[in-house]
Amino acid sequence: MASAPGILLDMDQTDVRIRPVREEDRPDVLALAPRLAEGVAAWRDHDAAVRAAERWLTASIDGEGAVFVAEKGGRVVGVVSVDRQWHFTGAEDAYVGELAVHPDSVRTGVGRRLLAAAEDWARDQGLRHLTLETGAADTTARRFYAALGYQEESVRLTRPLTPGNPSSPDPGTAL
After folding, report:
1. Which end of the chain, N or C, is less surrounded by CB atoms within 10 Å?
2. Structural domain tally of the chain?
3. pLDDT computed for residue 86 by the predictor
4. Which CATH number characterizes residue 76's domain?
């Protein structure tokens, strides 16, 4: 089996099973929420990002899409959620809302296998594209997705608004 460039894989994945999430997995899945807050801009509230990730995971488990977990030795070591989402062009795409892998299982192929499960679900739904987002500062995740063939489609820009931070440029500044 060949791996994508730049991705280290543990070739013996026989002890890792990808399966649909079960209700009893909820605590283990929610324990992965801090992994989703990594790579969030430094000026964002990290604790708020973790709480948001917990809400996203809960909504995904309770939602209409699919959630898959990676299980190793009876323990959940990763999760991916995938659902339908409309693209602004009117096309219906698959959207990965969350992909998180336990730190002990990073770079072992678990993330790749979870993403493959999401892609298979999307194909089974008749969808032609799978989209996802990651933090701009999360260069590890960005390299991982690029190595698997994902391409940047849009860029989201944010400007913190703080007192004393002018809303408009100096009139003498050319744009």
Report:
1. C
2. 1
3. 94
4. 3.40.630.30
Q: pTM, whole model, 2 decimals?
A: 0.82
Nearest to 37 by CA among 27, 47, 22: 47
What strands, in cross-sheet order, belong to the sheet with 75-86?
16-20, 66-72, 75-86, 92-101, 130-132
Residue 86's domain comprises 16-147
The residue count for the chain: 175
pLDDT at 40: 84
Query: Strand (E) positions, 34-91?
Result: 66-72, 75-86
Q: What span, in angstroms and rounded, lies between the C-alpha atoms of 28 and 47?
A: 19
**Look-up: residue for tokens 């050319």?**
174
d(CA 113, CA 61): 19
Q: Tell me which residue has tokens 């790749």.
A: 112
Q: How far is CA 113 from CA 14, 15, 59, 144, in A?
A: 12, 13, 22, 12
**Run means of pLDDT, 10 residues per run, the chain, 175 residues:** 37 78 96 90 90 93 94 97 94 96 96 98 96 90 95 88 72 60
